[in-house]
Amino acid sequence: MHVETHAGAHVRSRSAHHRLPAARGWARVAATLALTGMLLASFVASPAANAKTPQPKPMLDASAVAVPDRYAADAAQQIFAAGGNAVDAAVAVSFTLAVTYPDAGNIGGGGFMTVYMDGKPYFLDYREKAPQSATRDMYLDDKGNVIKGMSLVGHRAVAVPGTVEGMWEAQKRFGKLKWKQVLAPAIKYATDGFTVQPWLQQRREFASKNFGGKTNFDAYFSNLKAGAMFRQPELAQTLTRIASDGGREFYEGQTADLIAQQMYGHGLITKTDLLQYKAVWREPVTASWNGYQIVTAPPPSSGGVGLIQLLKMKADLKPQFDGVALNSEPYIHLIAQMEDRVFADRQQYLGDPDSYRVPVDKLIDDAYLAKRAEGITPDEVPGAAPVKPGLGDSMPEKAQTTHFSVVDKWGNAVSNTYTLNGPFGSGVVVDGGGFVLNDEMDDFEAKAGVQNQFGVTSGDVNTIAPGRRPLSSMTPTILLKDGKVSLVIGTPGGSRIFTSIFQVMTNLYDFNMPPADALSAMRFHHQLLPQKTIYWEPYRPIDGELADQLKARGYTLEGQLFNGDVQMIRIDGTAPQPAADPRGVGVGRVIQ
Ligand code: DON
Asked: Where is the catalytic site (predicted)?
């Protein structure tokens, strides 16, 4: 039995899609998505019970998921019915989305998984890495200028994928079911096909235009047409090999051969790069806030640090926020000043922790943030004084996305964000393998001071180097209360990821909104560059009096923004409350 909420049910028709001519890929796609609904797929649960070990007594009334599409919810339900736990379900969801949500779900990308298992927090970094032959200036022409699009489209944009290794590691360490069982739903969707919804056709059409015939994308995906069954026989074979031979097949077996062949003469990834790829268990970033323990993403994500900085500074600024209405002009102005500081620190200090000693503790230190918040006032003139990184100028020592949240009835949780970066990544499909490769190399800084597709610069700490992981903003987060999971949350959105999560958490905890309202409230975004710019979202535009007030304050308003597709589960007592962002087509489902 299950109880379900659908994001599509909340989609508002007030989209400003027609006002977004210059929006970049992911922004346009999300705006389009907000206009479309999604048909329901049928689900047949598999017979229960072949878990490896007996389960402890349940702590919650049910398990639950908040996932970006219906097929993934069905896969999770199948896994829970078979006795799987949150990690089994998460791995099944991840492989399923690689089939049914191919613009972001992936085996050719990478990501982060935050886990709470048997009362302990864990973090798995399966971020992509630069190939061994990557060089700092690989995207510059003879004159030292960035070659447009090179880090985004085609073979040279691709970093060594981490997703399969990540799922393999997570399932091996924490899963209860057999590896083959968790891949079964994905293999079935790839073999038998699934019904394409209009939003997926729109995303495919947009991506195809973007790739401009420079890749083999159309040969694989031109049949993604609304209403049609879409089958992926090569992907089914790849998944079947991975299911039979284990996750390392992707890095050492026939799939590795296919990737290396695809790259040969065009891209940089070799069999050695694949062989050397390893996911890394890292200490999650943790902090106390508002009576909760936050467990979130460490570097190479900037998201965990950014989220904690925002939450703590807002708490420090309580007197200034007193009586200030949510999303009013003074509210946006105060938050924008906090965001200037967070993005200034991000640019200076955040990078791959295997290359740099990132000063995480200092950056989330209470006294540091209290001091940092001191300069924030309601009367500040936007852009009047340049915002600098807060720990001084010293360098630290020598370092299309989707999210899903899962809890099981035993009180374990997975918060997972993974990505191809742009919609359908680089547009390069592995011939014979049937899957798209990422364009994560764009998350490095190609040249000092040049913004990436999300408009962020990231300084010397995020230059390209062999084997380095590019700086990310992905922020899969779990909140604990008295050692028990209270919230599982995350979203796609590039540099908007942690500002979106911050806003939803603020709505939940500072404004006591129910989950659905916390998600549907307006969200805005501001970062260091471009200065004085507030980004609004098509789902709930900033217009009318609020727009006039912000302009009068000195802000420029930009409406090119995709402001996330948050998938979260809040636990109230023993009842999980999953909620999917109305901006997308996700599904929140309680599973008995
Ligand atoms: O790792 C990052 O921060 C980006 N590659 C994430 C990209 C993203 O969220 C695109 N989503 N819509």
From this structure: 401
pTM of the model: 0.92
pLDDT in tens, 522-558: 999 999 999 999 999 999 999 999 999 999 999 999 9
pLDDT computed for residue 394 by the predictor: 58
Q: Which residue CA neighbors atom 12 of ligand 1 most closely? A: 493
For residue 473, which atom of ligand 1 is closest to its CA?
3
Whole-angstrom distance, CA of residue 477 vs CA of residue 150:
32
Name the token pair of 576: 């999980």
328 pLDDT exceeds 90?
yes
Between 419 and 26, where is the model more confident? 419
Q: Rounded distance, CA 498 to CA 313, Å?
A: 14
Collapse the DSSP code of 488 into the 3-class scheme (helix H, G, I; strand E, B; otherwise coil) and give the result: strand
The domain segmentation of the chain, as residue ranges, is: 10-282+399-454, 299-396+474-481+495-565
Return all residues near 530 (Cβ < 8 A) that are at least 6 apart.
455, 556
Ligand 1 centroid, distance to 261 Cα (angstroms): 27
Q: Is the CB of 179 under 6 A from ligand 1?
A: no
The partner residues of 478 in beta bridges, in order of sequence, read 295, 488
The answer to whether the CB of 305 is under 6 A from ligand 1 is no
For residue 114, indicate whether it is catalytic.
no
Q: What is the mean pLDDT of residues 147-161?
A: 97
Pairing mode, strands 110-117 and 120-126: antiparallel
Question: Which residue has the CA at smallest separation from atom 5 of ligand 1?
Answer: 421
Helix pair angle (163-174, 86-100), 10° resolution: 160
Non-local CB neighbours of 96 within 8 Å, separated by 6+ positions: 71, 72, 74, 75, 105, 185, 186, 189
DSSP letters, 2-33, are EEEEEGGGG--S---GGG-TT--HHHHHHHHH
Q: Is the CB of 442 under 6 A from ligand 1?
A: no
End-to-end CA distance of the chain: 6
User: Does 402 contact ligand 1 (Cβ within 6 A)?
Assistant: no
SS3 494: helix
Class in CATH terms, 299-396+474-481+495-565: mainly alpha
Cα distances (angstroms) measured from residue 135 to each of 152, 300, 356, 444, 457: 16, 19, 17, 11, 18
For residue 384, the model assigns a pLDDT of 87
Residue with tokens 């909104």: 513
The CA 302 to ligand 1 mean position distance, Å, reads 12
* Helix axes of 329-349 and 544-553: crossing angle, nearest 10 degrees: 60
